[in-house]
Amino acid sequence: MFGKQMPSAARSKDEGEKPFWISFADLMTAMMILFLVVMVAALSSVTQRINQAEQGEKQRNKDISQICEHLSLKAKTASKTIVVDCKDNRISFGDAGRFGHNQYALSNDGQSALQEVVPMILDAANSEEGRKWFKQVVIEGSTDTDGSYLYNLHLSLQRSEWVMCSLLDSRSPLQVGLSPEHQQQIRSMFLAGGVSFNNAKDTKEESRRVELRMQFFGLKEKEDNLKPDVPVFNNTDMEKCQLAMNR
């Protein structure tokens, strides 16, 4: 009787001392499940960021369209001369925005168009959507193809500079109605840049023109809260253009 029970007790003792080893197949299955969980979480996070970026870009485009369309409506109401192109975010002035041959000063009609449109642009920049997205306005002076490249480059820069002078020179009639706050905003928002004949029109007369190109912050710039550096000038004298304003 005792002899029959001893092998069973010895067998139980041997089985209890055997180490437990997970099978290789079970180990690989567990690792695969863990990998899938991590991948699903990562893909979900990436998808969420993409959706947020797409929604943000849609909202940005909607806000910019609203800014431009509102500005276009005000311009049409105020003057038939001012044309706001919301596709390219450009403002042109038709015949009033053209220059004479080898001239950098706008006509009286061109100055009047500037005097009308600049306050509208500032109002658009100060709107709720404008404070979020409006970055700057580039004054683009253009030329025809008469003369050399450097000659036309210099002339295009003079034309854009003259427009800037018209906005800031203390002797300019455009100063009427511009508050000191508006003048400071012009200094920080408006940039003068020549484009020579790179954007020529069908005729030479149409090519000799000035346009205002509105630029807006990108979504990444807005998220990073990036703002263009605005220089601060210590000179307290009245602004005076270096070009001849009566030309």
From TrEMBL:
Tagged with keyword Lyase: no
Chain segments annotated as coiled-coil in the UniProt record: none
Keywords: Cell membrane, Membrane, Transmembrane, Transmembrane helix
Superkingdom classification of source: Bacteria
Annotated Gene Ontology cellular component terms: plasma membrane
Pfam families, per the entry: MotB_plug
Record membrane topology: Single-pass membrane protein
Statement: the UniProt record of this protein carries the keyword Glycosyltransferase: no
Transmembrane segments: 20-43
Localization annotation: Cell membrane
Domain OmpA-like residue range list: 86-218
PROSITE patterns: OMPA_2 (PS51123)
InterPro entries documented for this protein: Bact_OuterMem_StrucFunc, MotB-like_N_dom, OmpA-like, OmpA-like_sf, ZorB-like_t1
Gene3D superfamilies: OmpA-like domain
Protein family per UniProt: Belongs to the MotB family.
Protein name: Membrane protein
